[in-house]
What does this fold into?
Amino acid sequence: MLHHLEIYVSNLSKSTAFWAWFLTELGYKQYQKWELGISWKYGETYIVFVQAEERFMDVPYHRSRVGLNHLAFHAESKEQVDKITEKLKKQGINILYPKQHPYAGGENYYAVFFEDPDRIKVELVAPSTPVN
It folds into this structure.
């Protein structure tokens, strides 16, 4: 079981605004907050976002480099995926793979893919649809 995940971000205030509403929608509760970081907790697992130091921001994040590719979260239902998708659109957040949405992961894989302020790919996936 995952204990926690810590992600350094380029702009803590932008990342906090982005992640707060999304994680709250999924049932996470704000856990810790300090000058250079914030975390949200769900059960025994928490996610931490920390402001990166200026000296380490010379190379921007890219999911194709070595390291984190994306974060995927469980949705309660297809309806929750649709609800979050509409909120993303209203906030002007880019939906990835729009021509394949909501089946960008395959015909039995209902999800929305989008990016956080640092372009970290985020996925919200509905429970699997059984294949007959």
About this structure: The longest strand covers residues 45-51.
